Every structure is written in C-alpha cells, then in structure tokens.
Amino acid sequence: LPPQHNADPQKTAFLLRKQWTLYSVTPLYGFSNADLKHYARLLSAFTAAEKQKGLAVEVGVELDIKVTVSNVPDLKGSDRDQDAILVQLSLRSSASQKNSEDKLVWLGCFCCVFGDHLSENLPEDFTCLPLFLANGAEGYTSIVGSWFQKTFDCCFRRLAISPLNLSWMAAMWTGCQVDKTTSAMELVFSAPCLPYPLDISYAIHPEDAKALWDTVQKTPGEITQEEVDIFMDCLYSHFHRHFKIHLSATRLMKVSTAIASAHCDGIIKFLQSKYLAGVLMLLTELAISQIQ
Amino acid sequence: MDETVAEYIRRTVLKIPRDEIKMMLQKWGFLSEAQLETINFHQIKDNISQDVVQLCEENSADIKQAAVLDIIYNNIYPNKRIWSVYQMNKTGEETEFFDLTDFKKKFKRLLRSALKNVTITFKEYEDNAIWIRIAWGTPYTKPNQYKTSYVVYHSQTSYVFISASVLKSNLPLLCQALVVASNYQDIREMELRSHSLNSLKDIVFKRYSQNFQTYSPRPLTEKNVAPETVDLRIIQENRNEKERIQRLNREVFGDGPQPKIEFAQYKLETMFKSDPKMDVLDKKEPFRCLVKFSSPHLLESLKSLAPAGMADAPLSPLLTCIPQKARNYFKIREKKGVLPGSFVSP
Q: Which domain of life does the protein's organism represent (chain B) (predicted)?
C-alpha cells in the first residue's frame, strides 16, 4: 500500500470505525473551494425547504438543522488530487441555548485519493471528487445528494463492490502488517437462490491467513491477479476438503480484516489509520471505474 | 391485585396474536367461560388486554397464576427463544420411578436455599414434558418477572432443554437443582442449540427419519405423480449424474423432513494441505479457522446444495452427522494419517 500523504492522522480520524455507504460521483461543475460557506447556507435553506415539504427525516419536534461545509486538505493522495470536502449536518433543538452542543446526525465526505487521472482531460470548471462516503440516515443522504446534483450537475450512484474486487481487498489487507493481530480475516458468502438461503462465514486466524498470503505473494509491494486467485483458491480448497462445498459457486458478499471491512452493497468500515489512504485509493479507483 | 402482576398480565396478553388470545385464555383456565364471553376479541389488542386485566382483578390474580399464562405462551411459541440441550448422567442401571411431587419439592428447595427471591412455576403436559419457569431475583431484590429462564424436562429421558436467556450466572445453580431434584449425578451441556425446540427434541429423541443405508438396485418409483407431458425437444443433460446426486443425497439425509436448526459452527484446527506444485504454505501447525453456517432451515439448505451444483454428493459427514451426533457446535482436529474426522473436545 502506498505511503501516507503527509497527513495529520487526527484530521482524518473521523473516518475510522464508522459505517460508510459509498457512492461514485461524476465531476462537479462550477464548484469552488472559496464558496464553501455560501454552499452551507444554500444547503441549509434547501434542507429546511425539504423539511417543510414533508420529506424530512425527523417528525414532530421542531428541529433546526445546521449545515457545515469544510475542506479537509489532509484527505488526499497526491497534491494533484482535489481537497476533500466534508459536509456535516447537526441538530440544534430550538429549546437549547447558544452554547449547548449540537448533535451531529449526518456526515458526508467527497474525496479523491490518487485519482487525478480522471481529471486529466477535463476543463478547469470541473472538480473531480469521485468518491463520496455517507454516514447517517438515508433521508439526509438523499437531501444532500439532491442538492449537489441540482447545483453542480453531477450524478451520484451507489458504488457496488464486485466479488472480484472483494477478493482483491481480502488478499491486500491480509498482507498488511498489523501490530496486534486481534481480528480474524473473515469472508462471508451467500447462496440466496436455494429453497432455503444459506450464509457461510469463513473466518481465518489473521496470522495463518497472512502466512498463507506471504507464500503466495512473490514481489513485495506488488500484487497480481494471479496471486489473488491462488490465495482465494487455497482458501476455497481448504474449505472444500472439509465440507465438500464449492465456495466459488456461492457469492462473496463481505470481507472483514483488521484493516477494514467491505460489503458488496458498497459499505465500508475503516479500522486502521495507517492504511486509510491505501483503502481510499482503492475505493477511488472503483468509483472512477464506475463513472467511466 | 398487585400492580406489577396486572402489568405483567397485560404485557403477556399483548404478545399473543389477536386470533389466539381466546384460546390461550381458555387453556389457562383462570377466567371462567362466562367471563371470557364478556370480552370482545375483535377490538384492538390494547383494549383486549385491558379487559383481561380487569377480569383478573375481579378474580384477584397473583403472580403464580400470571406465571402459568406465561408458560402457556412459551409452550405454544417456543421458537421465540433459543434453546440449549443438556444431558444428565448417573451410574447404575436402575430406572427409578419418577416422583413428580418429590422432584418439585427438591427443585424448589435447592433454588430457594441459594436465592431467597425466585418465582418457580411448574406445568405438566401430556407428552410427559415438565415445563418449569423461573423468574430470577437476588438476595436483595424481588424476582424480575421479565428475566426468566425456562426448562423443559421429559422425565422419562435424561435430557433437559433450557432457555436461560439473560442471567447466565444462574445457570450452574439451575443445573444443580435439576440434578438433585431428578436424582441424577451430573449434567453436561451438549453442543446443540436452536430456536426450534421441537427439532432439538427430534434430534435427541431420534424422531426424525434416519438415513439407513438402503440398497436399491432400481430407482424408487414415485406414486401419484401426474404424467409429465414429454416435449421431445427437451433433453435432460446429465440425467444419470442428477439421479446419482439425488440417490446419494437421500442416503445421507434420509427421506423425511430434516429437523429444523438455524446454524452450525465448526472450529477447524486442521492442517493446510495444498498441491505441492503450488508452492504455498507448508506449515506444521494447524490452519485455524472458524466456519459458521446459517439458514432459516440449515439442514434442508445443505441438502439442496449438491442438486444445485454447489457441492459434491455425498456432502461431507461433518455436516450430515449433525442430527445423529446431536450437536451443531464442533471442534475439528486432524486425525493422524486420515482425512479430518470429528474429534470431540470438551
């Protein structure tokens, strides 16, 4: 995995240990880093209007939603990447005083980590932030997404992660050096089309999984498709030896390691700040593939 | 009537599906037929339960009666809880005569001597099942009627089914009470858990159709099958293979319906073996894995894997042995020189 951009891990810590839903976003037209406060005001008004329409998430109590839009310069791969943009939605109950704490209810982050090749041939009016991460209620994601789509003529799509890509993540993340090996390397498979659906969780002790991967990977720092295939085949055949079941005929749904966990519906959880950039780089790549 | 009892009865009635309330109250027998006639069972459940509480007030219900209603509910809907299976042992062959009164007395005495505050309720059913409901308290607090454990004991057998739920710390005491009350020597937990109490009974009492090896030189003919309209343009590929798979499946799983369990777990501590050409891991230590299978009906799901092309037939004995071995939690170690077998570890 590539070395971390000179980032302050504190600034990106908000990404860790939360469940993020992933989207690919086409380039934003007419977006400017200088107008973030302005966007926050516009988005705030839009959100309030949506609430009046009855499309709001919360019902009953009169709630005041505060919107913050900021940039996160530490969240990028190279200097050619755009600064990441963070959108925060907080609730201020009208009864509370100015000094009381707002309750953070939704986070959205646009970023691009080593994804500058997408912007290579685009005019300057476009801002490339192909990866969007959302944490919080779906209703808010929908409102924020709608506003960005209308305002910057872009398109959000849920990022699906194929079994092929999940296998890559499994292999890559298994090879990472982790200080305390507490989490198993877990693969979750599903066979939904049977009369009674079947789910299989296959968890391997992280030391043993890493030992296997280390014998498969020939060049440190490089991973080939062939190596990923061999690694997965080894795991499948160990399973088959015991249970006579062909895991390759089922669908790989989720991969969990000490580094991160990823679900095929485009849901991710980052667990280690040391490898955050690496995982984001991979996800940026997936987002870019989905856009193109 | 105590407020807590009233509330408990109200909540218990609310759990029952509306169409079943009258039947359950009749089974309970605490309210008379005349009283039941006064309740409108077509109104919303909230109102039905209020009416029931009102009538219970008239009859001065106490916690003992309320507890019986709770047992009746759990007896009809046992699948809402998760059940573990325990087996009791004693040396000596004599099957002693089971004295229910003596059992109840000893059970209560042991629990009460350790914990002053417990509510213990018994109900016997026709199939020789004794249901015991225990609401746990502490030396300083009254029993919490919402923190309950249930025991189902078939006195003709050495098996006990326990749904302990929350207070696992009371489990050893509960086990001790059972052993003493039933005149056994000890009790051990089997590696068998499920939501389906009846399936657990099927498994331990061997009530499912077992897979006897039958040799059929000709395929078994089905009765009462409507003649298929044969479209000669459709050819069944691999018919022989499909029939072979069906036959092998029948041999390992048997013909009848499978007992219903929802999961099986295997802790694997076997060696990793691979094709030597692949030049991969060749450690002398076990490749440690934990495999969990889950499904709304696991055994039927596993049975459908080979016909669906997702598994070889016959399926591994590690999976097909679940009913015979009466367990769904396994620890598998390498057998020297042979394919992995199930070496049972305590």
A: Eukaryota
Task: Tell how strand B329-333 and strand B263-270 pair up.
Answer: parallel
Q: Do residues A130 and A118 touch, judged by C-beta distance below 8 A?
A: yes
Q: Is residue B286 part of a domain?
A: yes
Q: Which ipTM did the prediction report? A: 0.87
Q: Using the beta-carbon criterion (under 8 Å), do A249 and B280 form an inter-chain contact?
A: no
CA distance B264 to chain A (A): 10
User: In the numeric block, which tokens belong to residue B233?
Assistant: 């343009």
Of B294, B297, B311, nearest to A244 by CB-CB distance is B311
Which of B281, B283, B299 is the best mutation test for A, with the most CBs of A within 10 A? B281
Helix (H, G, I), strand (E, B) or coil at B128: coil
B310·A238 Cβ contact <8 A? no
pLDDT value at position B218? 46
Per the domain annotation, does B200 fall within a domain? no
Cβ contact A196–B310 (<8 Å):
no
Digit-coded pLDDT (tens) for A250-263: 999 999 999 999 99
pLDDT given at position B222? 54
Question: Is the Cβ pair A245, B278 closer than 8 Å?
Answer: no
**Chain A residues touching B333 at Cβ < 8 A:** none
Where residue A7 falls among pLDDT bands split at 50, 70, 90?
A: low
Domain extent, residue B144, equals 83-195
Spatial distance between the Cα atoms of B61 and B55, rounded to a whole number of angstroms: 9
Structure tokens at A61: 């109590």
As given in the structure block, the two tokens for residue A123 are 């005019």
Instruction: Of A168, A179, A172, A180, give the one whose Cα is nearest residue A210.
Output: A172
Any chain B CB within 8 A of the CB of A241? yes
* Residue B144: CATH number of its domain: 3.30.160
Substitution target in A182, A207, A208, A227 with the highest count of B β-carbons within 10 Å is A208
Which amino acid belongs to residue A204?
Answer: I
pLDDT digits (tens, 9 = 90+) for B263-275: 999 999 998 877 6
